[in-house]
Amino acid sequence: MASVFARAAQRVPDRRPLLQAVGFVVLVNLIGSLPGVLSSPGSAWFQALEKPWFYPPGIAFSVVWTALFTLLGVALWLVWRSDAAGRRLALGLFAVQLAVNVTWTPTFFSLEAPLAALGIILLLWVLVAATIAAFRRVDRRAAALLVPYLAWVTFAAVLNFEIWRLNA
């Protein structure tokens, strides 16, 4: 009878990796959403700014950032669970770029400082590119998951520049 239970237990998949991945996704989404709670594009200052023709609808930002933070969470989990050389550097770069990421929103919206925010997003772009390179050495899939993030940060930098230029 004990062998029947042992065989049944062997067939049950280990759900810990999935739960860990979900935990990483939730954590990155929580961290990424914190600045939006404290500052928002709904301010009178931001509404009065001239925007470029390619400024997306407001809902696009929350949809895109949720998707990107989800990809970042999975990528972070893939690197975290790896034992490859370079893992610590990759994790450190990820933490630094995420910290820089969360400074952009309050700088732009709360401080009303588009030029300072532009400097932050350009630094963020460099850090994301470095993180992709570091992730690639650990897990190529994790690096690939960050490519859409780099594309969005590129778009956001252009958008930030244009808002600054149009309102300078």
TrEMBL record:
GO cellular component, one term: membrane
Matching Gene3D superfamilies: TspO/MBR protein
InterPro entries from the UniProt entry: TspO/MBR-related_sf (IPR038330), TspO_MBR (IPR004307)
Topology in membrane: Multi-pass membrane protein
Keywords tagged on the record: Membrane, Transmembrane, Transmembrane helix
Localization per record: Membrane
Membrane-spanning parts: 21-38, 58-80, 89-109, 115-135, 142-161
Record bears the keyword Chaperone: no
Main location: membrane
Domain of life: Archaea
Family to which this protein belongs: Belongs to the TspO/BZRP family.
Name of this protein: TspO and MBR-like protein
